[in-house]
Specification:
With 163 residues, the protein is an alpha/beta fold. Helices cover 42% and strands 17% of the residues.
Amino acid sequence: MKTVLYPGSFDPVTNGHLDVAHRAARIFDRLIIGVAANSEKNPLFSFEERIRLLREVCKDMPNTEIVSFSGLLINAVNEFDVSAVIRGIRAVSDFEYEFQMALMNRELNERCETLFMMPSPEYSYVSSRLIKEIARCGGDISPFVPPTVASAIVRKCGKSPGK
Ligand code: PNS
């Protein structure tokens, strides 16, 4: 039974994250999506809210579970006994940081293998950071996140998306 861990901040989860999660869940027996507890200094969504949103949007994925982890990713790799870590690469610009992190993680724990997966090109420009910026300025974020997440963002940002 091959289990993989897809870690991230998920502040908030986007359609791009979900695209990668669906692809990983099709390849592996079990997918664990790990929400990092302290990854963002000023998150829009609390840790509990990020987990709740992920659970909601992944509820139809039978071999997927949402967990939290704090501290180092390499410890979560041991704790959840996963075969590999999944990271999404949207563009070449993502690669340098991801490559460095993957090698550092493997240096810290030789069991920590990282697999890079590419989302569909339509998500290559979608990021949680841009979505938050667009929402804060009253823009329409509905094409980039699931409807539950779009509503939650609008509630947080106090504006309805300007269509
Ligand atoms: O969604 P993100 O913000 O790109 O996810 C980054 C994340 C949470 C996967 C990364 O920051 C992480 O692994 N944090 C846990 C702390 C850690 O292990 N840091 C050392 C990485 S070499």
